[in-house]
Design goal:
heterodimer; A: 141 residues; alpha+beta; Immunoglobulin-like; three-stranded antiparallel sheet; 1 helix; 18% helix; B: 141 residues; mainly beta; five-stranded mixed sheet; 10 strands; disordered N terminus
């Protein structure tokens, strides 16, 4: 009969689907190997650009941010905490030096860039350069 | 399934903390909202019968982290509080907010009562101790 329900079986199917979804997500995550370390997001509006960079375990003094016009470079180094003679079971986390350069949507005011670290995410606020801001032209009657 | 395969692979290498991938915690497949499942990068090393497990979980706050020990399986789960900034459009994206999940099977040599967890700058550090020292010195008479 069509109306018959099997509550237990239904839950099992949902659980299985959820598991499959997780596995598919993981596969796609694994395919994203072409992303240069560290992963970042760029947001913008007419006034400023926000750049968020995933930098877990880094302290402020291990990160270097350079801005020039519409070019942003984030560089840094994360050192291994493990003692030299430690026995390794698994090693997936990034270690060593990195430098990543990106082109911003428009030139920014390098002297007014703000940077802060929040739970392992570097948050940059880059105001648009005054010269680049769109101007409204008044049409004279 | 992926977790099981990994587990088997690790057994060959005699690893004390066996990675089980982002295994589902039993009885929790009900989700209010669809969330991306993220697999955190993990380092595991050992020194003087202390095992250190480090997991990169950028964007996760202490209150959004849950570590559970269920029989011999240690689950770590952290919800990233990273959100889209209001009033901004996305220009480019390499990472997303979501739920970091990973499970590890512990063998009987790990002291269940002496597991320490610390979250700092988006990195979870777990410290696990062995019940019995792995190496015993044999006196030569």
């Amino acid at each position: 009969m069509l109306g018959t329900r099997f509550p237990l079986a239904h839950t099992e199917i949902l659980r299985e689907l959820s598991r499959i979804q997780d596995e598919v997500n993981r596969v796609f995550e694994g395919l994203a190997f072409d992303i240069e370390y560290p992963p970042l997001n760029i947001w913008n509006n007419a006034e400023k650009v926000l750049v968020d960079v995933e930098l877990p375990g880094y302290t402020a003094d291990q990160i270097e941010v350079t801005v020039s016009g519409e070019t942003l470079t984030v560089a840094g180094e994360r050192k291994e905490n493990a003692p030299q003679d430690a026995e390794w079971h698994r090693r997936e986390r990034f270690s060593g030096r990195f430098s990543k350069t990106i082109r911003l949507p428009y030139p920014v005011e390098a002297s007014r860039v703000e940077a802060r670290l929040e739970n392992g995410i570097l948050k940059l606020e880059l105001p648009r350069s005054e010269a680049d801001k769109p101007r409204k032209i008044t049409v004279k009657g | 399934m992926l977790g099981l395969r990994k587990q088997e692979k690790d057994k060959e290498r005699e690893v004390q903390v066996v990675d089980k991938g982002a295994e589902n915690t039993p009885g929790e497949p009900t989700r209010e909202e669809p969330q991306v499942s993220l697999l955190p990068d993990v380092d595991i090393y050992e020194k003087d019968d202390v095992i250190y497990l480090l997991a990169d979980m950028p964007g996760v706050k202490k209150e959004d982290l849950e570590i559970t020990l269920e029989k011999n399986v240690l689950h770590i789960e952290g919800r990233s509080s990273y959100t889209r900034p209001e009033g901004f459009g996305c220009a480019y994206s390499e990472f997303r907010a979501g739920r970091y999940r990973r499970s590890f099977a512990l063998n009987d040599e790990i002291d269940r009562d002496k597991i320490d967890a610390q979250l700092k700058d988006g990195v979870l550090q777990l410290t696990l101790r062995r019940l019995v020292p792995s190496k015993t010195k044999i006196e030569v008479r």
